[in-house]
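Board notes (copied after class):
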Amino acid sequence: MSPEPEIVPNVRQAVPFFSVKNMEESYSYYVDGLGFVKKNQWLVEGKLRWCWLELGGAALMLQEYTKEGPDSSVPTGKLGEGVTICFQCQDALAIYHEVTQRGVLASKPFVGNGYWVTSLSDPDGYRIDFESLTDVPEDTEYSE
């Protein structure tokens, strides 16, 4: 009898793809403000049009939408509305301290669903949460 073939998962990762109004502003927010690192890019006439950014083991993509011409893709609704990306961390409180020291506005951490949570809103209104497991009582607010 031959051994069962090893089943290897085909899907490896989900990567949020954000359409943004201003690539320079969004890129600076994620790289300079949150500490992401650019791993890949697409340049058009020397201008950054798309990029793949990573922070630890997580990633996201940014692309400025085309505002004019035959390939325009201006969104009709408000960008970011209803979208939250939750980054699972070893220590969300450390992320809170790092980003606020860089001048990024982040919510005061609190405990929700057994996680420390701090929330941010990027320039286009996408909500970014950094979360880490804790045994601190529910609804506790962080105090420095």
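Comment from the instructor: Strands lie at 17-20, 37-44, 47-55, 58-64, 84-88, 110-112, 115-121, 127-133. The two ends are 63 Å apart (CA to CA).
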